[in-house]
Sequence to fold (167 residues):
Amino acid sequence: MRACLPIFFLAATVAFTQKITIEFDQTADFAKYHTFAIRHGDLNSKNPALNSELVKKQIEADIVRYLSARGLQMVTGPSDLNVRYHFGTARKVELEQYPAGWRGWGTRVVRVPYTEGTLVLDLRDASVHALVWRGIASEEKSDPAKIESKLDNMVKKAFEKYPPKVK
Fold:
C-alpha cells in the first residue's frame, strides 16, 4: 500500500492542460474578410495515429465549421484569407519531487512522461500575402492518442478568439 501512495499523489498532481495563444496584426481590418480557403496543412508527429490523412481531414473540417460559425464563407477559388495550419507532437518529461525516507528526510524524484500536441492556425491576407492572425493551441496528455480526441476543442477555442478585439 505504501508503494502505491506516491503513485496516487503523482497522478493527482500532474496537471494536463490546454493553452491557447493568439497573435494578430493590430493594423489589419478584420471586417473586410468574408471568405477563406484552406491552402496548406502540415502534420509532424512520430505517432502514426496523429500523422494520418484522417487527422488532416478532421482538422480541416473543424476549421471550416468554426470559421463558418464566425461568419466567414469557404471558397475554392480566390479568397480574402488563406488558412495554413501545422500540427505536431513532442514527448516531454516532468520531474515531480516527494518527501521520502525516514521521517520525510529525503526526496524521491519521479519522472512523468507526457506528450504535448501543438496546433498552429495561420490566417493570411491573400491580397498582400501577410500573416494577420495566428492561433496556437497546445494540449498535454499522458497518452498521445488522446490528443486526437482534443483536436476539435483546440480548433474551437482558438477560433473563439477570432476576430480579435483590439484594445
About this structure: Residues 16-159 form a domain with the Double Stranded RNA Binding Domain fold (CATH 3.30.160.670).
